[in-house]
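User: Structure with aspartic acid, tokens only please.
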Amino acid sequence: MSLIVQKYGGTSLGDVERIQAVAARIEGYCKQGHRLVVVVSAMSGETNRLVSIGRQISVSGHYPREMDVLTASGEQVSAALLAMALQQRGIKAKSMLADQVKVLTDSVFGKARIQKIETQSLMAALDGGYIPIVTGYQGVDEHHNITTLGRGGSDTSAVALAAVLGADECEICTDVDGVYTADPRLVDAARRLDEITFEEMLELASLGSKVLHPRSVEFAGRYKVPLRVLSTFNKGPGTLITVERENMEQPLISGIAHARDEAKVTVTGVPDIPGIASKILGPISAANVEVDMIVQNTGADGLTDFTFTVKREDFDRTLALLKPLCEEIGAANLAGDKEIAKVSIVGVGMRSHAGVATKMFDCLASENINIQMISTSEIKISVVVAEKYLELAVRSLHSEFGL
Ligand code: ASP
Ligand code: MG
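Assistant:
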């Protein structure tokens, strides 16, 4: 008998009718003889609502421990409601909180990492004929504090459970019917992929595709958990995320990701001396601002320019941090641009083909789109362009690469 871990996202559990529809879907799987462990997210909008009330109260301080207690409650509600909906259908199901399963994490509130999952109570529930309905996103640390895994973290909960239980598959049931070659809201011609490798999916997820939490893909890749993204309410095979296989169709590019939520910061005329990068970026990372692309020009006349990108929400903070620093090191100018976007092409096929970058740059040039920054890895090329060209860039590349 196969064991499947299914995760239902917030939109799939958004109201009473949907919860009942999910229960009906689960019943269908039971009738086919599958054993199931279900992981749930909070009802759609609920986590945002909880974060916002929390912020209204904690105006002058941060209370990470209490914020985790607060936001973890959303998943508890979903688990109880779904368990009751199943029981209404005569199916044995029971909600299980992270503490009851024992999803043990470190103590980093708000972005805890899973350290260990005990399988005893889950196995006991399964052996008793129950479907465990496990709260995603939450964990518990060694001192019994409730922790959370970070926004979108219930994907990771599901994959981690699938890994420790040795499940045959982990299904992420969501409001899209799979992983697409590009965001279908941007590109009419975007199509669903039947399969994609863990590596490619990890790049896509990290580069802005919102379908899966990047850490869940990392986990799935590490423990070789076959992961499937599929629609909760429309029938279809979805997209299987899996290991690279010999016979896997290997196009040059598998997908295009984009991110709008970035901003660019440029420091010009900084002394071209050892230690300058760490001097500029040190205070920024100390303030927990995530820096993405970094470019330093070749120096001329003992001076160089330094450009990097941060999340748009961190832009003002970054400039404020840099201002005094620029004066201190005698930089000529500090400038920024919030109207940028990042477009990335991803594909394992790139590894064995030269000229992919040229093809990408030619395509953008033919549309008169200026490339502001470039970064590459073995299986991806990212460029920063003006935000107003984002859609054009994604569409042109989609057709250029025959996706
Ligand atoms: N409910 C959490 C969030 O909205 C976790 C999740 O949905 O995966 O971020
Ligand atoms: Mg999600």
